[in-house]
Amino acid sequence: MAINIPRGTADVLPGEVELWQYIEKQARETCKLFNYREIRTPIFEHTELFQRGVGETTDIVEKEMYTFIDKGDRSITLRPEGTAAVVRSYVENKMYGDPVQPTKLFYIGPMFRYERPQAGRMRQFTQFGVEAIGSNDPAIDAEVIALAMRFYTNLGLKELHLEINSVGCQVCRPIHREHLIQHLAEHKDELCDDCKSRLDRNPLRILDCKNEKCKSLTKDAPNITEHLCENCAPQFEAVKGYLDQVQIPYTVNPRMVRGLDYYTQTAFEIMAEGFGSITTVCGGGRYNGLVEQIGGNDMPGIGFALSIERALLTLKSQGIELPVDTTLDCYLIALGEEAEKKTTVLLDQLRAHGIAADKDYLSRKMKAQLKAADRYGARFVLIVGEDELKNNVVIVKNMQDGSQTEVAVSELISYILAQ
Ligand code: ATP
Ligand code: MG
């Protein structure tokens, strides 16, 4: 019996993979422009890293992790997100000691969450994310946001909508928390079961609940922005000011939360008109308590993550075609056994000069080979028959205009390269 792909995962086949490569290239180029350097961390980490680095009370840790005991009796987890691992690596490799600061990093790679699969929600998905660790300058908050926006606008996405908020810090959040608990306590019985248990443990996350009843109960809940302290209020104003300066429009959404103790100040999401509804295509924020939480010194940090899957779906739904190159430079057709041998050498020479080339391996007739060349998007078909072999020439057929020219074998490479 045939074996199927696991639920919530996908094969990326040729035809589609070129889009992935294009998007990943865009991500790398945008990071180069902003001077962020790539980091690659393992696909799995000690489970404890995510318990501490993502937070015990989050959906990710409570419900979504792929955790297993390995043969050495260690609890291992397939990474559900990138930030915790990057921060672990930052601390472990003492990157805070590098002469260039802040530490500006990016990653692209698969993440794993046991979710209910649907469009844009996979169990294995690929995130592109950046982290800037070591600076509390609000200008870097704006830079991180600008990087995400630049990435998406360069891909051609339209109707991007940026929402920002400040979630305060250890000073102002407890005050807001008290107000929030007070407000919600009166309606405790009406909250969903998840939120009932969140009320004491992590009331901020109730603001994020998708349940309609919870949404309506929190409609008039006190906003964190009303309680920002003397550090956080000007920080938030400064971030907004920098965004204004570079003309990135935004709306303040005081309900947007990152419900963890070590998430601080700036939180943001980018939404786009996508697959049928408004979709979050990027989420990020500041995490000034995280480095310490993972065992490092007290270091501020900020970052974002987005998934290639959602980016692709949104591009498709907006009808945006990426300019991917699926052409082949040359397809060689040999007629006869001697010519067949010759094409092997020609093929090797073309490739050695950086010309993408292929030939038939199924002993097909001339007509079928021409069809194959067409399917590969070949720009030129090179035909070698007995006569050509004798005269040391090749017939070069230009597939765009149909014209044919005879070119000496010795001139072939420079002829193709000049086209
Ligand atoms: P959501 O509320 O949609 O579950 P999230 O808060 O879990 O999102 P983050 O952990 O902030 O998302 O991840 C950042 C981005 O990664 C999201 O904005 C989204 O674009 C993407 N993403 C998150 N989960 C998935 C998934 N299961 N499949 C595909 N993309 C995802
Ligand atoms: Mg989620």
Automatic annotation (TrEMBL):
<dbReference type="InterPro" id="IPR036621">
    <property type="entry name" value="Anticodon-bd_dom_sf"/>
</dbReference>
<protein>
    <recommendedName>
        <fullName>Histidine--tRNA ligase</fullName>
        <ecNumber>6.1.1.21</ecNumber>
    </recommendedName>
</protein>
<comment type="subunit">
    <text>Homodimer.</text>
</comment>
<dbReference type="InterPro" id="IPR041715">
    <property type="entry name" value="HisRS-like_core"/>
</dbReference>
<dbReference type="GO" id="GO:0004821">
    <property type="term" value="F:histidine-tRNA ligase activity"/>
</dbReference>
<keyword id="KW-0436">Ligase</keyword>
<dbReference type="InterPro" id="IPR006195">
    <property type="entry name" value="aa-tRNA-synth_II"/>
</dbReference>
<dbReference type="Pfam" id="PF13393">
    <property type="entry name" value="tRNA-synt_His"/>
</dbReference>
<dbReference type="InterPro" id="IPR033656">
    <property type="entry name" value="HisRS_anticodon"/>
</dbReference>
<keyword id="KW-0030">Aminoacyl-tRNA synthetase</keyword>
<dbReference type="InterPro" id="IPR015807">
    <property type="entry name" value="His-tRNA-ligase"/>
</dbReference>
<dbReference type="InterPro" id="IPR004154">
    <property type="entry name" value="Anticodon-bd"/>
</dbReference>
<keyword id="KW-0963">Cytoplasm</keyword>
<comment type="similarity">
    <text>Belongs to the class-II aminoacyl-tRNA synthetase family.</text>
</comment>
<keyword id="KW-0067">ATP-binding</keyword>
<dbReference type="InterPro" id="IPR004516">
    <property type="entry name" value="HisRS/HisZ"/>
</dbReference>
<keyword id="KW-0547">Nucleotide-binding</keyword>
<dbReference type="InterPro" id="IPR045864">
    <property type="entry name" value="aa-tRNA-synth_II/BPL/LPL"/>
</dbReference>
<dbReference type="Pfam" id="PF03129">
    <property type="entry name" value="HGTP_anticodon"/>
</dbReference>
<keyword id="KW-0648">Protein biosynthesis</keyword>
<feature type="domain" description="Aminoacyl-transfer RNA synthetases class-II family profile">
    <location>
        <begin position="1"/>
        <end position="323"/>
    </location>
</feature>
